[in-house]
Amino acid sequence: MFRYLKQYDMADMRDMLRNQRTPHRRTTASLAGQTVVIAGATSGVGLAAAREVARFGGRLVLLARSEAKGRAVRAELERDFGAEVSLYLADFARLSEVRRVAQELLDGTPRIDVLINSAGVHCTRRQETAEGHELVFCVNYLAPFVLTQRLLPKLRAAGAARIIQVNSQGHRFGGLDLRDLAWRRRWYLGLRAYGAAKTAQLLSVWELAERLAGSGVTVVAMHPGEVRSGIGLNNGPIYRWYQQRVLDRFLGDARTSGESLHFLAAAPELEGVSGRYFNRTHLEKPAPHALDRDVGRRLWETTMELTGSNDDG
């Protein structure tokens, strides 16, 4: 752990600690008349965000891998909040499915005002997707990248739309290597692989913010806080036991993350704020390696090639 802390000065460390202790900001701003797309909406942070969006009157478009879970969440939101909810299915481990669902959204959703990318996974062992990508990098970075790029025409058409990437303080563990994005040459460490994906996501936020300048569309990243999210429960029984019996005892309720995401999605004072990183709702400086714009530009070009995307959305 100490090797990662060496890169920070004391002011940055104080800011991180202060932000972690300071209660998150809230807003009562309505989302009535707005359509909010949430990827990873059936559990943890994404589900908490969906509940808050419904509570404040937003129309919800849920992206889920499991149809059964998606239907259950849709029924809950309709029953408890009277929300208007649509459900689309896609496995973020398959970029072909992400492209397909993005086209379905373009064809079937009249407008998109907010996009929240909350789908995520953490693995203790390297896994490769059917399309040849390292699983954590694909689900946490490549898939949200593709979804966001494909939905840009709809977001631009909405005017002052907001894109929120659910990131993590895990980005501070680094691990990004442009020569080995799939972890085929290096010894695989779960935290480093997770950190690599979240670092890549942050680097892409800075690049996308520049490309969206003047369009009215903003993009930010946020750490959702130390909460019980269920991420990592895809791992083996020993890890699951440790997470449920030990880690979860020290973590908070994911509702705080949902309230934070509602703030980032709706607060009037954040209109026009783009290319920033939030610790829940507090501005914070990311790790130095996640601010390297040269690496970010090269990563953007590589990602475009890997995903078959383009800067026109």
How would you describe this protein?
With 313 residues, the chain is an alpha/beta fold. The chain has one domain (31-298): Rossmann fold, CATH 3.40.50.720. 45% of the residues lie in helices and 12% in strands. It contains ten helices and eight strands. An eight-stranded mixed sheet has the order 3-2-1-4-5-6-7-8, sandwiched between helices. The protein is globular. The model has no long low-confidence stretch (mean pLDDT 90).
The tally of beta strands, per DSSP, is 8
Q: Can you say what the CATH homologous superfamily is?
A: NAD(P)-binding Rossmann-like Domain
Sequence of secondary-structure elements:
HHEHEHEHEHEHEHHEEH
Query: What overall geometry do the principal axes of the alpha carbons give?
Result: globular
CATH architecture, please?
Answer: 3-Layer(aba) Sandwich
Low-confidence stretches: none
- N- to C-terminal distance: 39 Å
- Using the CA coordinates, give the radius of gyration: 18 Å
Which structural category do the helix and sheet elements fall into?
alpha/beta
Mean pLDDT: 90
Count of runs of 4 or more consecutive helical residues: 10
CATH topology term: Rossmann fold
Read across the widest sheet, the strand sequence of neighbours is 3-2-1-4-5-6-7-8
**Helix share of residues?**
40-55%
Sketch the major β-sheet. Answer: 8 strands, mixed
| Count of folded domains | 1
